[in-house]
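Input set for joint prediction.
Command: fold jointly, output tokens.
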Amino acid sequence: MPEVAVKPGRHREATLYHALAGVGAGNGRTLAQLREAALKTYELSELPVWRRSGFWTTSLQNLDLDALQDHAPTDAGEQPSGGVPDVVQRTLPDRPHAGRLVQNGGEVVEVELNPALAARGVILCSLEDAFRDHGELVGRWYSKRLTIDRHKLEAANAAFWTGGAFLYVPPGVVVQEPFEIVYAIDGPGVAQYARTLVLGEETSDFRIHEYGLGEDFSDGQALHAGAFELYLQDGARCRLAHLQDWGRGEVYDVSTRFVGVGRDAYCHWLPALLGGHLVRQHLELAVSEPGGDMAFRGLFFTEEREHLDVFAVDLHEAGPSGGDVHWRGAATGESRASFEGLIQIDPGAQQTHTYLQIHSMMLSPKARVDSIPSVLVSADDVSASHGGTVGELDEAAIFYMQSRGLDRPAAVRVIVEGFFEPLIAELADEALEEIVRTKIAGKLAAAREDIEAYATSR
Amino acid sequence: MADLEIRDLHVRIEEREILRGVDLDVSRGEVHALMGPNGSGKSTLANTLLGHPSYEITEGSITFKGQDITESEPHERAKAGLFLAFQYPVSIPGVSVANFLRMAINAKREEPIQVKEFRSQLQHAIDLLDVDKAFTSRHLNDGFSGGEKKRAEILQMAMLAPDVAILDETDSGLDIDALRTVAEGVQRLHEEQGLGALIITHYQRILHYIKPQFVHILMDGRIVLQGGVELVERLEREGYDQIRQEVGAGA
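tokens >
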């Protein structure tokens, strides 16, 4: 008997966000054609507002796009960039890596690749250089699944991106240390159109840590409109982590990231969304061919007046395939976070087994976390289900720890860290784990009074 | 002057008065048993002594080592040397027993404990409580059996070396082997470290392993009888009802 365990959920009708259509904009068109089409969309469209029936709006109407400049290095008279910004040097771990590419604003300021890997055919360079030096290869994959016309900022990215990152891992190449790709915004006035393309050939095995880091600033705005695409060929394996913290500036982040998992390939993906004034991300992990498997992990922590809107898609286009989605989030201050997780199983993706869970924790009376799981299934020999919890601080656990001598803030920290720990440990990279732990501890310390007031008010 | 002095303690929870004037002294090196039927206020007393925020002290005082701690925060009481072994220890997911112990020990110290010293203390406690070493790398109380939770409580007690420990129905839900291990652990801490213990229990059986010098019977929020170990035997013979009638009649 086929196992059909589908819980469509009440939210199905309310679902406003959609998985990307099967084919992206790239197919058969040159970069110039794509840029031209994207520019047209950009000029014809307004800044986007996303609404989910009645209770959620993500609006970019406060973004003054005209006031931002994309930091292309070509402007005469403009100071050349100062290299790798402080925030990157402060944050990135001092650790061995396979390669590192840093883009500050619109300009790639550092590219480093282990020569031994270069000798084996690994490519890490700016996407601009990749189009110049590896045009045929890049052209085949560029925007293969990403669209350019769903909204103004997606179009802006496709039309205006500069710098960018291209990583190519040839067949059979196994790399232990991570490739680090960094997008940094070092002050207000920046519109960063970031573009990463990664291709993992057959049976390659590697790690990517992509960072989005912002310097703190108080006046003005900045924008990161990002597009990320990763394609894993037959039997390839990749551990992918995104770590994003735009700091205390008014940074808008509107990004789309797509990971395509090929035949018998595997991807473990963990975005850690740890700060940004307004963040709207479409994250899609697709098993595109039989035998593909994936673990889609994620964590977020919002504070103060931050607004986070995540749409995560667990897409199965072919079966048999496996999926396992597990996200955790916490909110302090007056922040708002919405996580919509969609399991979509396309016709023909038989023998897909997937599960989505989302756990959230409210740490302040004015914070809000909405979790919306939804399931769209068009195959009958599958199992797909979801679950989750919404929690507050467990006072019994706090008293327990206090009775052992921990003061209240320490006890709260233990609980929140413990809440995230199962996912942090899955990063399986000590240096990166430490960054995440430190950032979460910092956010908890900053929200100490708020959390305290919440506890005593109940 | 006793280390822990409880004077005329009245405690309310949600408008209901549970303790109605409790007086009790416990010092280092002494073992006390506090017995009473269900609902007599035993756990209320245990939680109040550590400053649980849900319990409101309406009258009376708690003094510990000469300091009035009636209004102190729970962690201040712990740092001063009080300990509560919980009846129902809560799970702390994501934190290993060893890491939690290190945090708790460091909370009491100026300088963080040296790794070597911590390890040797932990090993000592592990031997005392007859637990597997792997036990300390599991998340605290997360998925623990009843017996494992109680062992973890006593393990923490051994590591934190309090002056006075309150053991809230530590014997409940334990099979005879676990009970013996836990009780012998407490007995040894009493003998080796001079631990003072207030053993709260409904039953007599833990007192077969730890001999109390002082026995107090709590009923309806008051201590109605006090004596030595002979009280336990009497209770075993006669039951709470008999004693209730007697003290009721005498009141």
